Amino acid sequence: MAERPGLFTRWNQARRADGLALRRALPDRLLPLLVAAMTVLAALALAGATGAQILSARWSNGAASMLTIQVPDPDTPTTTAGTTTHLTRSDAVLAALADSPGASRVHRLDKAELGALLAPWLGQDHDFALTLPAIIELHMAAGTQTDATALARRLAAIAPGTLVERNAEWGERLGRLADSLHSCALLAVAIVAGIAVVLIAATTRAGLAARRLPIELIHAMGATDGYIAGRFARRTALLAFIGGLAGSGLALPILVLLSRVAAPFAAATPAPTPASSADWTMLAHTLLATLPTPLVATLLALAPAAALIGWLTTQATVRAWLRNLP
Amino acid sequence: MIRLRDVGFRYDAAGASGASAPVALRQISFEVPQGGFRWLLGPSGAGKSSLLRLLALTARPTSGTLEILGSSVAQARRAALARLRRRIGVVHQDFRLLPDLPVFDNIALPLRLQHRPEDEVRDEVHSILDWVGLASRATARPPQLSGGEQQRVAIARAVIHRPALLLADEPTNALDEYQANRLMELFRDLSGLGTTILVATHNDALIRRYPAHELELAQGRLLRDG
Questions:
Q1: Which of the residues B90, B92, B94, B113 would you substitute to probe the A interface, choosing the one with the greatest number of A C-beta atoms within 10 Å?
Q2: ipTM of this predicted complex?
Q3: CATH number of the domain that B78 lies in?
Q4: In chain B, how many domains are there?
């Protein structure tokens, strides 16, 4: 008995001469173009999803785990039971905060930091006539629950008038907003994928209609549904992969630009602007490094995902169509 | 072998269904043993082509039971039907050659669908091209061939994989007497090797030259089996 030929040989034989003429059934221009456009849209939506996820994590783990304490008259000595001590009010509060359970970092804003904070309202001049309150940031360790009311009571006993502002509430609100944006972005990706499925199915059905006679003939000669569906699906997957690659390439500069704009919010370092055209080659590597890792992975996965969607959609479409044959 | 029991077939024409659809075959019953040869006779519209369609598994009976090469068609899964079809050769009245493919590739189709090695395909196709006298037309496309040449290509394609069941609808229509006689000799050889053969024809001279068991149809009914 003759040895069964290898997979590639069988594929090549079939590709050459089974009469399906898939180049005519599924032209190589329209489908890659449509898939490229869908890929760009998907890449943008996924960038939005990734950005929202990063912001959500940052706001939840950063701002939400921080308390801001205002100490009026920070340089005035504290008094205990009517007796003046050598500690200033701010030093006393700092000492109390350092002993707080779960405190990971206590930082008093210096004059420059205060100036920067107030610059939008008071300008760049840092010589204030009024004595400003001390602003202290209390960073809590991850997972630590802080009773802000109890802390405020304790600090007020040490330095009356001290205010404790809990940032977690804002952090949670911002986190919920980011989560909503993330969900919307994923919904957009799902819609884009759905449109891609409809487009590929329509293109495949047009191809089937165009090659109806050869399909019926080789079906009558014993070609299985799997063989015919596989031939169409491989062609669609290839065209979708090419479209996916083109779309990813088009989306890359847009995503890098967005990444640079969003860097301050995500605390990332923006990529350097090239000094000359000679730097562009090196910049290409830097650009990918600039993007968040999940986004790079997603971008690299877009073309294979497009090919998979194309393959699965075509398989389903062709097999459903072949059900009309006996 | 093939076996039919009360087989009926109704075309599911556009807009017609159920009782209003045109009936092509009614209560057809006969058997052909392995290696048997049958002439399929009857006037145009008698149901010969419909019967060949059922036997070629390109249509399903609407009633009765049909057994092809030992398998019941009604109970067979799609993959099993595909395997059965690969054991059947069909010469269509209108040839049904693929105009995009050269003669060589048209004839090679059944072998390639069986995933035969390409060397074997090449040898088999060249051998049968010699036999049908078209060795010099291997690279031509069907529209470039005469009617007789196209019919010889269709015959070559139907027999190249040595089918267990061969169905031919007016296979000598476009052939001269010499070619028709050679074809009948081929059918006789294949039958001797175990291929079951049904040939639909109006060619009385051919039937007289090659007398065999006859199945005669009229208005979708089997009038004679003998």
A1: B113
A2: 0.88
A3: 3.40.50.300
A4: 1
